[in-house]
Amino acid sequence: MLAFLVLHEMVRVKGQIADMALCCADKDPRVATMTRLFFKQLSQKGNALYNVMPDIISRLSDPELKVPEDQYRIIMKYITSLIQKDRQMEALIEKLCQRFKLATEERQWRDLAYCLSLFNYNERSLRKLIENLDCYKDKLHCEGVMACFNTLMTNTSKMARNEIKTLVTELGDKIEECFTVRNTDNDGEEHQENARSEKEEFAVPAPPPPRNQRRRQRPARRNRRRSSSDSDSS
């Protein structure tokens, strides 16, 4: 009933649409088939699927929902394949890059990177990735994230025009620069820490006071004692 209402634009759903997307990987083949048919029909309703894609991605990536990663990838691989318009893909790529800034869990980073690896890239969409590098550059150290970007660049370079290959190379160079800067910063911090440890280890202790100074102090104490005894005797 809900599917009928959504497809006939009689009701708009956001939160529930992600729960429906889970059924794309349902154990019951009939449920999975019907759900996939629903999303295929939804993709033919103008921007209907595009409008709910960010909610589906963020909802299924929610750590509290605990969707298995392999199940998540099955769902997103199918639904993402239904986005065919270049402008929709470009806008989604930019939105996914922006969501990296809000993601706090490594699993969320991998999910977002995987979704990015599923798109077919043209020149404009590749530029979106390059322009939004600051959004995800601090997540590239994650092995799963970097693996998705490697897949993205490899697949995009296959049978591509020279202009696209040039942009892929530019993206790869910028990613490499991120790792170089990160390693340099880590080396600098390690060097400072080592220098601090060596300074503490080999610190020269303060020298004791000279002997003649200590000898001079002792008679002074005796003189004070004598003066006090003289005053008592008087």
From TrEMBL:
Residues 2-117 form the Condensin complex subunit 1 C-terminal domain. Residues 189-202 have a biased composition (Basic and acidic residues). InterPro entries: ARM-type_fold (IPR016024), CND1/NCAPD3 (IPR026971), Cnd1_C (IPR032682). Its main location: nucleus. Keywords: Cell cycle, Cell division, Mitosis, Nucleus. GO terms for biological process: cell division; meiotic chromosome condensation; mitotic chromosome condensation. Residues 212-226 have a biased composition (Basic residues). It comes from the Eukaryota. The keyword Cytoplasm does not apply. It is found in: Nucleus. Residues 182-234 are annotated as: Disordered. Pfam families: Cnd1 (PF12717). GO terms for cellular component: condensed chromosome, centromeric region; condensin complex; nucleus. GO terms for molecular function: histone binding. This is Condensin complex subunit 1. The gene is ncapd2.
